[in-house]
Amino acid sequence: MTVFTVSPVVLGIPGRPVDLQLKVSAPTEGSGLPIILLSHGQGYSNHLSSLNGYAPLANHWAEEGFVVLQPTHLSSRTLNLPAGTPGAPMFWKERAEDMSHLLDRLDEIEKAVPQLQGRLDRTKVAVAGHSMGGHTASLLLGMKTEGVSLKDDRIRAGVLLGSTGRGDGLTEFVRENYSFIVTSDFSDMTTPALVVAGDKDASEHLTVNGPEWHTDPFHLAPAPKDLLILEGGDHGLGGVSGYDVAETTDESPERVAAVQRLTTAYLRSQLLGTADWQQEALVGVGFGVHSRP
Predict the structure, then answer these.
(1) pTM recorded for the entire structure
(2) What is the pLDDT of residue 46?
(3) Residues 6 or more apart from 15 whose CB is under 8 A from it?
């Protein structure tokens, strides 16, 4: 399916240090299109952590009939906000609020992108995020941080890619510098979600618990949850944020293709009521699937 992209769409948000910029990727045809909010991670490549990252996911989902909205969060290296900015350096609360702002301002987004007008199904919304973006997505699905709930009931499903886990498995550096992760509480994360993790993703800069740490949202959150484990997958999951970024230490087009195919099948099952997405898992090898219905 042919797709188009528009970037940047700019939204003025009262009280936000800079305007909220986003990229829109969508198919050129069709109506009643479901929406995916895509939250970027926090890698050290300059443009990974912005609306310009994650083309392997955004382009594929748009080709498959979804409208993908990618904001540049305040934590992005492209903004380089002063260290004293409230919420710095990770702006964990503001990142989740960005996504809710996008849903609040869909009328403005449609006006800025006339090709979208009248084509969105606002009742079919999912959120996806990689790494720190997974933390953001988890908040919108019902995880609490520092006792704060930012759950958005307009979101019907989520995809967590190499996401953050429990707070008692963090490195000393993360505990001291990103203490909000210590308070992660998955007990109220009730929205359906697919957790995607690589079995080689030790993320030693984040956790002492090894690759299993990234599966915590599956094990600690209430059902329904699904878990996809990619054999040989490191934190880049083959290159979901971009094949050439420095963070992709496990570059594998085949692994990315598996993530594309299986996440698409999962999102269709949750938003469109299609057949069991796990049937897609029977087509390939190199991954394991687990469910808690």
Answers:
(1) 0.97
(2) 79
(3) none
